[in-house]
Protein: RNA-directed DNA polymerase from mobile element jockey
Organism: Schizaphis graminum
Amino acid sequence: MVLKSLGIGNPLLSWLHSYITGRKQFVKIKNTVSELALIPSGVPQGGHLSPLLFILFVNSITKWITKAKLLFADDIKIFLKIDNLNQCHILQSELDIFASWTYSIGLSLNLSKCHVMSFSRQRSPIHHNYSLNGTSLNRVFLYKDLGIHYSPSLNFEHHIKVTVCKALKVLGFIKRNTNQFSSARCLCTLYFSLVRSILEYGVVVWHPCLLNEDTSSYA
């Protein structure tokens, strides 16, 4: 259904249909083999087409959710600027639509990995109780997403401390194990590849907020 709605027709559509339907698998542990089980959904693990098919599958959510959303692989974020309670209800409506979409395509949500986070520098921001499938979502005040730690105020202080600590540990490991190294070029290569890469990861996200701050405490 999803592929057809994207304008994919036969014979490619029929070939893809035969590729992802009617699949069976079994589990083997040492010399014990389970019975064959029919796989009703999903794409073949490790298949060359699997990532592309999954992205096409998940991207169908863009036709359901009308408000702002961010998608990265199987990670989806729905967000809205909240100034009043009515906007909270609008966001909840989007979450309800999202839940209906997952049900319609046979996806199950891992609610333990679904969270709510509000970004604001107000002293008393609006904290509404949002839910998915009747289950209240856990509100968090520190969240790691794609390697970056976020806080409600978006000051990235925690992320910087974690990053510096991680980089110092790697730097210490290099110093302890390169006493016999005589090549400065080799040491620089180790630093740039193992230490500086940690410090610069995602820098375009968190560094701009520090342009007007004293960063000497992070050194």
